[in-house]
Amino acid sequence: MKSENGTLVTSYTLYQQYKHDEDRLTTAFLHFAHEGGYDFLRELCAFLGHPLPESPVNVYAQRNVKIEEKTTNRPDGLICISPFELIVESKLKAPKDLKQYNKLLKYKESKLKSESDTLLLYITEDINKPSVLTEETAWISWDDLNQLLLDYSNRHSFMVPLYKGFEGLYEIVSFTLNGIPRDELTVIIPTGNSHEFVLKNNLYHCPSNRNFKGAKYMALYFDQKISHVFRIIAEHGQNNGKFADIPDEDIVFELKIIDGIPTFPIQNDKMTKDNTKSTAFTQRHRYCSFNDLENIHYTSELETRIQNRINKFKSHKPIKNN
Fold it and tell me: What residues have CB less than 8 Å from 160, skipping those under 6 apart?
């Protein structure tokens, strides 16, 4: 729907073809924000350390903002909760061309002068906030944003379809960027209550809508550590009575444990944003290379290896598979 002030996100389909991957991801996020409304945005802004006024929410995918008398700029997204504005800029890595960033900073300053509350939010795939962003600029990683959306949808079942749409796009983009050789692709799974079952039976099962991108290895994350790694021998599809104690509709992975990795287990040392307490390394599956897991003792070392490989991969033009 086109309003006099811009195009609402509901005018765009979730899987509309965009030239840039970050635009597709941003649209999926904006759809989620639109449906989650004030309740979700309050949680997002609490994570960013910014309170919200209570007011109706409008989410725009395209809306020009006025920088100067004859200068406008179109951010990736604009969320209006009058008199508050959240300007969304999404990148798959830290911005190198700061021209647009400086324009948006100028717009933010002009809104502050008119006593309007404006927050500029950058979303990137970096592990830490890029140094080019000022202290006043809010930042969140795609991984942390995905976790926020997952947590919210787990508590509000009507949001699950929108989260699945976002997750599917996020996995495609993050997997493409990681540059992991197919024969080293490893999925890290938080096992929770199923941990002992996996170790006892060399089987892992999960809902049929999961997709691990043809991973060759599976590592288990349990009790604040990456404890075991398996070679995936076979994916059996839906169980349908083949294995006991597994729901018929679940898909089943047959595993073979890999022994002899001297540095296992890998201890989680991830901290909360304010650095006051420990937090889970992951609450959903993540990808890495099998080699990433060797000769390290802490998950922070694993994060560094993943980020270094991503940076190296980004510096070369990807070769498309036929």
Answer: 153
Task: Tell me the one-letter amino acid at 61.
Answer: A
- Alpha-carbon span 164 to 207, nearest angstrom: 13
Q: Can you tell me the distance from the alpha carbon of 235 to that of 283, in angstroms, rounded to the nearest whole number?
A: 23
- Cα separation, 224 vs 265, in Å, equals 10
Sheet with 6-8: strands ordered across: 2-3, 6-8, 58-62, 77-81, 84-90, 117-124, 138-141
Tokens of 251: 């898909």
Work out the pLDDT band at 284, boundaries 50, 70, 90.
Answer: confident
What's the pTM? 0.62
User: Is beta strand 266-267 parallel, antiparallel or unpaired with respect to 225-238?
Assistant: antiparallel
Looking at the DSSP assignment, which residues form a beta bridge with residue 65? 73
Torsion angle of the four alpha carbons 84, 141, 171, 149, in this order, in degrees rounded to the nearest 10: -50
Structural tokens at position 43: 């949680």
What does 267-315 look like in DSSP terms, one character per residue? EP--B-TTSSSB--S-SS-EEEEGGGGTT--BHHHHHHHHHHHHHHHHT
Mean pLDDT of all residues in the chain? 81
